[in-house]
Structure formats: structure tokens, C-alpha cells
Design brief:
Elements lengths: L5 H20 L4 E4 L9 H17 L3 E4 L1 H5 L19 H18 L1
Parallel strand pairs: 1-2
Amino acid sequence: GNQPTADEMRLAFARAMWMANLAGTYGAKVIFTGPPPKDGLNPANAAFLVTYNDFVKSRLSGGYFIDLFGILGNGAGGYADGFTIDGTHPSEIGYQDILSKTTPVVTRML
């Protein structure tokens, strides 16, 4: 598949943390999101996304993480029933679920 290597993942994470720290010096708060699910995702890539999200959550400081893969997913890499319009993009129901689960995170940030 097209998944990044462990070194590429660490570099991307380091860049994200650098940006979060820079934003923090100006008093800004940062929200990170993981990728959403995708219908037809092979099991290895689905497992990789779970591992990546856990990696980010375990090392995140100075920001908040919203796990779109977990919020919208069916547990096998794809979208839960009714949460997508085309297997790639959330449906209105999917967006409403994101909103209901992210509003408390944003409220805590204020």
C-alpha cells in the first residue's frame, strides 16, 4: 500500500508538534484530526490508521485530537452505515455525528 514508513510518520508528527508549539506561543489552541475511514480500505491500512491515531494521541501535548476514523468508522476501516455519501466523504448524518462529538472538545478549549 501507500502507507508511510515509521520514519516518515515520526517526521510528520514532529512537524505537527512544532506547528502546535509555535501556535501556542501566540496563545492559539490546536485541534488535530485523524483521517476519516474509507470504504474498501484493506485491513492492513485500517490497522495502520488505528496505530497511527493511538501514536498521535499518546504523544500529544498542547493540543486536542479528534479521531474521525473512530467517530465515523465501522470498526473494519470503512464508514458506519449512513455516515458516508460515497464511501470517501461523510454524509450529513456523518457531519452531524462529528459535530456532536467535537463540540465538547471545542467548548473545553474556550
